From TrEMBL:
This is VOC family protein. Pfam families: Glyoxalase_3 (PF13468). InterPro entries: Glyas_Bleomycin-R_OHBP_Dase, Glyoxalase-like_dom. It comes from Streptomyces tardus. Gene3D superfamilies: 2,3-Dihydroxybiphenyl 1,2-Dioxygenase, domain 1. Residues 10-191 form the Glyoxalase-like domain.
């Protein structure tokens, strides 16, 4: 199969919450300037936008409307990851931006993975995207996404004052697994990268594996460049680690 440069980069983390406005308040109380969007298509989302990267908080508000929406198929595939959460809320997967998601799907199929492809058009915002879901593996594992136009072009047309970044940068995700080294190698193969011990150097947010009974995304690491670590804060089942 023809090789190509996928350029995998962290795009966004999906954080299932009991209520988006309440999650927004909790993030902001922790010093992370999250926001809330209006409910649409049977679900509501919000989150924290940094640049091309973001954390998305979301919950279902109208199951009937959701089943008829453009997001129904993708959310159906994500349901097992939500159901695998230890409690009613928590981070359950993340998206990786690639240059051509359909080409990435070809690579994954050649490696023996079962994948599903979806294309979603958001006409009101002049954007569409292709999502690739890997159907085998741990529930939390990432999916792949390619935007049209590319996300850098989309962001270039947005006034920087349109979103509030705040002082912190998102530097990484923390995933627990009974065998962290093996899990890191498996994720690296999926992404087309090379693991470094228990870390996968994904551009935009390194993925660090720690030993634990659950296979789950448990924390994010945030830095403000000060070098002074702050207290960890649990927001709706996701721990914010302020590393300084």
């Amino acid at each position: 199969m023809r090789r190509f440069d996928e350029r995998p980069e962290f795009d966004h983390l999906l954080h299932w919450v009991r209520g988006v406005p309440e999650a927004t308040e909790a993030y902001r109380a922790a010093g992370v300037p999250a926001h809330t969007n209006e409910a649409l298509d049977g679900f509501q989302n919000g989150g924290w936008r940094l640049d091309t990267r973001y954390i998305e908080t979301l919950t279902i508000t109208d199951p009937d409307a959701l089943r008829a929406s453009r997001y129904a198929d993708a959310l159906r595939l994500l349901r097992p990851a939500v159901e695998a959460l230890e409690g009613p809320a928590g981070a359950f997967t993340f998206a990786v931006n690639v240059t051509d998601a359909r080409a990435t799907a070809e690579r994954l199929r050649a490696q023996g993975h079962e994948v599903a492809e979806f294309e979603v058009e958001v006409a009101e915002h002049g954007v569409s995207f292709v999502e690739i879901f890997v159907l085998d593996g741990p529930p939390w594992q990432p999916f792949f996404i390619t935007y049209d136009p590319p996300r850098e072009e989309l962001l270039a047309g947005v006034d920087p004052a349109a979103f509030e970044r705040g002082p912190h940068d998102l530097t990484g995700l923390v995933v627990t697994d009974p065998q962290p080294r093996e899990a890191a190698r498996a994720l690296a193969r999926l992404l087309g990268l090379r693991a470094e011990n228990v870390e996968v150097p994904l551009s935009g947010a390194h993925i660090r594996f720690e030993r634990g009974e659950r296979r789950a995304i448990t924390a994010v690491t945030l830095s403000d460049g000060s070098g002074v670590a702050g207290p960890n804060t649990d927001v709706e089942g996701l721990v914010l680690r302020f590393t300084g």
